[in-house]
From TrEMBL:
Domain N-acetyltransferase: start-end pairs: 6-171
Keywords, in A-Z order: Acyltransferase, Transferase
Protein name per its UniProtKB record: GNAT family N-acetyltransferase
GO molecular function ontology, one term from the record: acyltransferase activity
Species classification: Bacteria, Bacillati, Actinomycetota, Actinomycetes, Micromonosporales
């Protein structure tokens, strides 16, 4: 997939060092399931797993976000298709050096467009730590509706966290 400034593609083995670098940033990892630093050997395994999955099959698929002009990996968008193939969940991570420039919104919008218009999904959900106001704001900008707050739902990195739940129906997608 391409957008005005981005290429969304399958991960390649050569992406592992860059993936390890941006996932090693404590601010990028703060609300994510992994800890910083994120070692290169772990990134190599992750990239192999990402490359082996399919965007059209149930389970997780990770799109690499590449800045077209620089041909540089700057983040990723994760999609989990449910077994019924008409519902999914989305997540996203962006290198801190490329945040606050609209790249995440552009990338997630392109993936949502594919999910709804090409793959025919009925609903896509997203979940984030309630303190992650930028992720919540991104989902709201894209039309997601807040559907719930799960209080002290997740024990991660030594603390209980609240989770915000978001949902977007195909009939609401205006992308």
């Amino acid at each position: 997939m391409t957008t005005e400034r981005l290429i969304l593609r399958r991960f390649r083995a050569s992406d592992a060092p860059v993936l390890a670098a941006y996932r090693s940033d404590p601010e990028v990892a703060r609300y994510q399931s992994w800890d910083a630093p994120f070692p290169v050997d772990r990134a190599e395994v992750a990239v192999r797993n990402f490359a082996a999955s399919s965007p059209a099959e149930a389970g997780w698929f990770q799109y690499a976000i590449e800045l077209a002009e620089e041909r540089r990996l700057i983040g990723d968008v994760a999609v989990r298709l449910h077994d019924n193939l008409v519902q999914g969940e989305i997540g996203f991570t962006l290198d801190a050096a490329y945040q606050k420039r609209g790249f995440a919104t552009e990338a997630v919008s392109a993936v949502l467009d594919r999910l709804f218009r090409v793959q025919g999904l009925h609903k896509v959900t997203g979940e984030c730590d309630a303190r992650n106001v930028r992720s919540a704001a991104l989902m709201e900008r894209l039309g997601f509706r807040r559907e719930g707050l799960l209080r002290q739902q997740t024990f991660i990195k030594g603390e209980w966290t609240d989770d915000l739940l978001y949902g977007l129906l195909a009939t609401e997608w205006t992308g």
